Amino acid sequence: MIGHNCVLRPNTIIGNNTKISHFFSSEEGAKIGVGDDTILGPAVVTLDKPPTGDAKGVTIGKRCFIGASSVLLPGITIGDDVIIGAGSVVTKDCLEPGMYMGTPCQKVE
What we know:
The chain has 109 residues and is mostly beta strands. The chain has one domain (12-108): Hexapeptide repeat proteins (UDP N-Acetylglucosamine Acyltransferase, domain 1, 3 Solenoid), CATH 2.160.10. It contains no helices and 14 strands. A 6-stranded mixed beta sheet has the order 2-5-8-11-13-14, with no helix packed on it. The chain has a 4-stranded parallel beta sheet with strand order 1-4-7-10, with no helix packed on it. Strands 3-6-9-12 form a 4-stranded parallel beta sheet, with no helix packed on it. A hairpin with a 4-residue loop joins β13 (98-101) and β14 (106-108). The radius of gyration is 12 Å and the shape is globular.
């Protein structure tokens, strides 16, 4: 399912049973992969290109939940079974299953 007012680019790969809520946005030429059974909350933004340099891509694993208004910076990988809290800014990989939140995003448990 894809919500209204989403901006999906040609290089976006979406897994099965994945829900992308309204106002999702990605950059021009972005390389984004979203795994199966994942939910992206409203107004999630993925950034693919650093200010200087080539596209690095964003990868989101299976069975993830990305909270509303979260920002995923270029080159980020989010592993399987990861929850990102609403409003988080993900500045580094979140590979271990669990909950991450904050600015910058850190694992909590």
